[in-house]
Amino acid sequence: PRVQPVRMLPGARPRAAKPPPFVPAGQSTQMIVGADGTDDRTILASSATLYGSYGLRRVYYSAFSPIPDAASALPLRAPPLVREHRLYQADWLMRFYGYGHAEIVPGEGGLLRLDVDPKLAWALAHPERFPVDLNRAPRELLLRVPGLGVGSVDKLLQARRVRRLRPEDLRALRVPAGKVLPFVLLDGYRPPKMEAIAAPPPPAQQASLFA
Length: 211
Known about the structure:
Layout: E1 28-33, H1 40-54, E2 58-63, H2 81-96, H3 101-104, H4 118-125, E3 132-133, H5 139-142, H6 150-160, H7 167-172, H8 177-180, E4 184-185, H9 194-197
Parallel strand pairs: 1-2, 3-4
């Protein structure tokens, strides 16, 4: 049989196919770290703006790598690779732990500490916020305890609905007790004073990249 052509009804218009959304998984961007004198506070502030105002899914950080015969404005050596790692850790704290970018970086210097991770650095700089009572503290405070991740906090919240938590419960729940115990209160346990834990943080320093 002969195939009849499709007839359009009077006034009808063909339905245009909708274009696929731009980058369905969400947009991301990358920042090169150490190519100029921009400090970590400024980098994280930019990331916070990109997340909050522009809805970016992810910001990536990449340490600058010198190339031969580069422009004289570029540094001659790469920044410490650990700086890139610390920025990723700080970014994680902003996205999943409720930290503001301004509180992660110390007030002086504008650089993250390289010797400890940003969460521990924040805790050592704020001894007045510790110890945190694991049997009573809300979730947002538990997330500030060094050694406690999102999964560990959820397990602790579930366990304390059933019983009062003691030090041995941390190990049973596979929580890193060595990292957590200096910063928390539990039934039958009180940590040493924060002064015994926190040595005065050294000033953030970075060797000149242009030397």
